[in-house]
């Protein structure tokens, strides 16, 4: 059924479309199943809105954002599209005309024309619908996208800024202070300071996101800052720099500052619960202010230790020669994010760094929460043998150091799963699971077979049924606790899977294979 939203009193009597009229206030999410497409009069008058308000676009936004409708939207009016673009004071409304699954026709028209238009149209995918909601129906997304895409170092700054202003109210323009940012960007462009230009541009986008957020509280301008303060370890031998950065970042995080590498390592040793989510270390550490004597451990050594004792994001602050840093970093084979000290001097630069750190902490927090809760994942003991690390510790190291390791697991799991779907067989693709060792190969087999176990569980097999599928020796008679032992070897807890507690690489593989 075509849902037609129009001005009933003004619809021409001979227009066959009048037969499909619906009252918008009687439409709800519950009765949308019969809707095949939306037909909307752009110049819709609703609740005393004036014709020039182009209220049909507001209704279309509601359809996409509140109803989450993926059906085609056909806009119409007697006005040429070029004229609509000219008279519209709110440019954001017109963006819906150019969205996927949106069309425009001039009336008069016929039902046959409408039917032909939507005959071969696909429904919007969930991802595309979300994209439309964020980037075409949300002022914050519209402005951020325009600035991010068009505000290049070699662009006409004034023109780019002027192009986004029609989307905003005068009050919003004043709060964001576009004039000042425009002046700063032009200045940096004229002096050739591309790095500073990018920093100012990023800060402008951040300010726009803040003031264009519908939940922004004028009485509490810091209400968007999380109340939870993530813990970050900061190591630098320059006491003045350490003090300044600790104060600035301390407004948003719990900073644990150190000037000595040995003290920093002691702190990491005592971080049994992985409360420290990020480590920021000066690359080169000296004992004295004359920069003559090196400390026992350098910043990169502390970062290496941090990568092996927990799941953390690693940042190195440095002014060192990049060739030297890259050579050492390649030897360590650890994912370390480099940041020049000169790029965290101004308040604008620190604001951007704060955002980077907050996103990093959120990512790490999510990854920690998703770790298996099984004691076998955390234990360093196997068959009464004590090792220096657990599967969890080894996984934490490899996630920072060995992308190829996970690529190989992806490929092998995909091959196993593809074969299973074709012939229902698994056992000849799975190796024995060691119960006496902890090493890279043991972890790889655990991670491979975990994915297969979880995939089968998501297809509604129980633990016993999964064991019988995965049993390497089909002649062996299944014993009562065999399926439990398999779960222990794979660090599986069914409640983890039911609650979505999965390793990030597992989750992405399961989604890719349509199992989540």
Please characterize this protein's 3D structure.
By secondary structure, the protein is of the alpha/beta class. It folds into 4 domains: 2-135, Rossmann fold; 139-211; 231-369, 3-Layer(aba) Sandwich (Rossmann fold), CATH 3.40.50; 381-512, no CATH class. It contains 23 helices and 11 strands. The protein has helices spanning 56-65, 81-87, 91-94, 111-118, 126-135, 139-150, 157-164, 170-176, 178-191, 194-211, 239-249, 261-269, 299-308, 322-332, 347-369, 375-378, 391-401, 403-423, 440-458, 463-470, 482-489, 494-498, 504-512, and strands at residues 2-5, 37-41, 73-77, 102-106, 231-235, 254-258, 276-282, 313-318, 337-340, 381-382, 385-386. The strands form 3 sheets. Strands 6-5-7-8-9 form a 5-stranded parallel β-sheet, with helices on both faces. α1 (56-65) links the parallel β2 and β3 (73-77). It is flat. The two termini are 32 Å apart.
Which key terms come to mind for this protein?
single chain, 516 residues, alpha/beta, Rossmann fold
Summed over residues and divided by their number, the pLDDT gives a mean of 82
Share of helix, binned: 40-55%
- Characterize the overall form: flat
Q: What is the CA-based Rg, rounded?
A: 30 Å
Q: Count of helices? A: 23
Count the strands? 11
User: How far is the first residue's CA from the last residue's CA?
Assistant: 32 Å
**Binned strand content:** 5-15%
User: Which architecture name of the largest domain does CATH use?
Assistant: 3-Layer(aba) Sandwich
Low-confidence parts lasting 5 or more residues at pLDDT below 50? 10-20, 221-227
The CATH homologous superfamily name of the largest domain equals Response regulator
Number of domains: 4
**How would you characterize the largest beta sheet?**
5 strands, parallel
Structural class: alpha/beta
CATH class of the largest domain, named Alpha Beta
Q: Which fold name corresponds to the CATH topology of the largest domain?
A: Rossmann fold
Q: Give, in spatial order, the strands making up the sheet with the most strands.
A: 6-5-7-8-9
């Amino acid at each position: 059924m075509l849902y037609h939203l129009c001005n009933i009193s003004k619809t021409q009597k001979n227009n066959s479309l009048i037969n499909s009229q619906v009252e918008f206030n009687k439409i709800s999410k519950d009765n949308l199943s019969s809707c095949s497409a939306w037909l909307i009069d752009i110049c819709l008058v609703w609740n005393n809105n004036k014709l020039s308000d182009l209220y049909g676009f507001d209704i279309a936004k509601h359809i996409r954002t509140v109803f989450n409708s993926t059906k085609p939207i056909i806009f119409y009016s007697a006005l040429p599209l070029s004229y609509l673009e000219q008279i519209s004071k709110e440019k954001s409304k017109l963006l819906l005309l150019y969205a996927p699954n949106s069309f425009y026709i001039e009336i008069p028209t016929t039902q046959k024309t409408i039917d032909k238009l939507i005959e071969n149209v696909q429904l919007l995918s969930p991802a595309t619908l979300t994209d439309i909601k964020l980037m075409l129906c949300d002022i914050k997304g519209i402005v951020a996208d325009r600035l991010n895409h068009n505000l290049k170092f070699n662009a006409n700054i004034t023109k780019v800024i002027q192009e986004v202003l029609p989307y905003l109210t005068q009050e919003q323009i004043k709060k964001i202070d576009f004039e000042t940012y425009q002046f700063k960007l032009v200045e940096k462009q004229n002096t050739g300071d591309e790095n500073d230009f990018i920093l100012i541009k990023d800060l402008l986008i951040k300010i726009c996101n803040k003031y264009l957020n519908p939940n922004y509280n004028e009485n509490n301008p810091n209400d968007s800052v999380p109340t939870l303060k993530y813990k970050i370890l900061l190591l630098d031998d320059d006491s003045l720099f350490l003090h300044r950065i600790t104060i600035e970042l301390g407004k948003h995080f719990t900073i644990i500052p150190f000037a000595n590498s040995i003290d920093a390592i002691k702190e990491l040793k005592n971080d049994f619960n992985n409360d420290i989510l990020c480590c920021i270390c000066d690359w080169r550490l000296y004992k004295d202010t004359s920069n003559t004597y090196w400390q026992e451990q350098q910043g990169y050594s502390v970062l290496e230790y941090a990568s092996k004792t927990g799941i953390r994001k690693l940042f190195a602050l440095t002014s060192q020669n990049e060739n030297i840093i890259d050579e050492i970093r390649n030897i360590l084979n650890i994912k370390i994010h480099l940041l020049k000290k000169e790029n965290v001097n101004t308040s604008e630069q620190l604001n951007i760094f704060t955002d980077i750190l907050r996103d990093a902490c959120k990512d790490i927090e999510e990854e920690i929460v998703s770790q298996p809760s099984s004691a076998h994942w955390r234990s360093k003991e196997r068959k009464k043998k004590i090792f220096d690390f657990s599967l969890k510790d080894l996984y934490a190291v490899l996630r920072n150091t060995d992308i190829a390791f996970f690529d190989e697991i992806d490929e092998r799991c995909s091959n196993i799963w593809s074969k299973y779907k074709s012939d229902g067989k698994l056992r000849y693709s799975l190796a024995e699971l060691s119960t006496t060792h902890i090493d890279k190969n043991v972890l790889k087999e655990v991670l491979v077979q975990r994915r297969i176990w979880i995939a089968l569980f998501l297809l509604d097999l129980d633990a016993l049924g999964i064991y019988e599928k995965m049993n390497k020796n089909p002649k062996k008679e299944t014993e009562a606790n065999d399926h439990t032992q398999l779960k222990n070897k794979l660090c599986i807890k069914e409640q983890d899977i039911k609650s979505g507690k999965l390793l990030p690489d597992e989750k992405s593989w399961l989604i890719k294979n349509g199992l989540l």
